[in-house]
Request: fold
Amino acid sequence: MSDTTTVLIIGAGFAGLGTAVRLLKQGIDDFVILERAGEVGGTWRDNTYPGAACDVPSLLYSYSFEQNPNWSRAYSGSSEILDYIKGLVDKHALSRFIRFHVNVTGLVFDDDSATWTAETDGGPSYRARTVVVASGPLSNASLPDIRGLETYIGHKFHSARWDHDYDMADKRVAVIGTGASAVQIVPELVKTARSVKVFQRTPGWVLPRPDFPHPRVARAAFSQVPVLQSTARQAWFWAHEVMAVGMVWDTSATTVIQWAAKANLRRQVKDRWLRKQLTPEFRPGCKRMLMTNDYYPALQRDNCKLISWPIATISPTGIRTADGIEHEVDCIVFATGFDVCKAGTPFPISGVDGRKLGEEWSHGAYAYKSVSVSGYPNLFFTFGPNSGPGHNSALVYMEAEIRYIVDAIRMIIDRGFQTFDVKEVRQNRYHAHIQRRLAATTWNSGCKSWYLTEDGYNGTMYPGFATQFVRQLARVELDDYLTRSQPPARKKPQRTRPELAAGGSHSASKVRRQRNGDPASSDERRRKAVRRSAPTTSSDAASQVVDGA
Reply:
């Protein structure tokens, strides 16, 4: 593709389509969306397993600038959420911008033209002034690496690749995993399968989900008087926001949450031994809270059994656990989560002077305010490093990022900037600040979760309230960025790559490499982290999201 577009968006899920809508609202229509699948929807297109639903209230799991008054329930199922996403496409005629079946295999920045080129799998390349990586953290699923998996002769699949052609009736089914997907799948499987065995590695804390149908009169009121829906949305937002006190940090509020979860367990499970198997040994907040009313009752059905022994190997006919018992099954469902990119990049990304983001993120991802990385001008991330919520709707965080990114793109266009590159010192200062704050959170208290890398580095979660995250993205401060309006000189200056020594396990991993005889390069020795707080920004956008939230 020889033409250069203004904006290239990678991914047609919630983030990519939300970015497209905001661009159109800003009067920017010179953009292309690349989607590797054949339809929009992202994780909600892929996850169609029985019982699939969101564990965030529907009024909050939608954009404040595109509210839906017709949600049928407090917590909607995957099909209804997918309909909402497709509704965005139809309402704003976004299909004209989307290129389906285009899998991006690499991004390369050209210093001379100040443009990005997206290489694709067997197709044309796409060139753009700016790029928004909106591929999402829950977009890649694969079977786990379990010994003997390749020897199994029965049916098997991942929950995100559900085989709807396979009839579970009268089948012996194994479910590996007890996370957010599994607690929705198991209650549905026990209704049809002959037997269900749930293989648990670690139990999670479970709270009841306050789900209920939205009466027709309420939906009519939301449609006719939008302020009513905004008020209900605010109520849900603040109910979740106060939970941060007990979910992000280990406080007395955490003890209250743990007491509520134990009370829920005692109420629903009468068998003392089963209760012991289902009681976590970590504090609430360390891992994702599970919201379900049906999981505990399903485990106590006559045709369901919880297996808490570790899996030793997969055999040709089933699963052998560490106690020596072989469990013969007809089908294995892997509800084992996603390949979240906590280190490295989803595809190769080459920036200024050929620097490789995958190498720089090899020990943990980082970014300035979760959206920009120094040395990679005009490149933005949605749901970037340290933007994960532990207590509130991901869309509140995503919407703040999208607003910031679109404002930055508007600035690039209006002021004629060729490059818009966050200053390394600002990035390092911000990252050091975030890592210091993370040290005091429940996630970094010694518990193990998918939020952390193998060496304990947390490049996933944001250590604070949603309102704080939104506030920091309220305004694009031009002084945070290096800009260039003229063509570059032919001689390219040497730049250092930012690997941030922010303390904790991230810098400890570098020390370990040096101790193991891998000395730091001269570039690495020059890298410094300036430990000061990130600058305060306007609170206007925070108020906007909360008012709309």
Q: What stands out?
A: The domain at 149-205+249-334 is CATH 3.50.50.60 (FAD/NAD(P)-binding domain). Residues 429 and 532 are 6 Å apart (CA to CA). The first helix runs from residue 14 to 25. The chain has 17 helices and 20 strands.
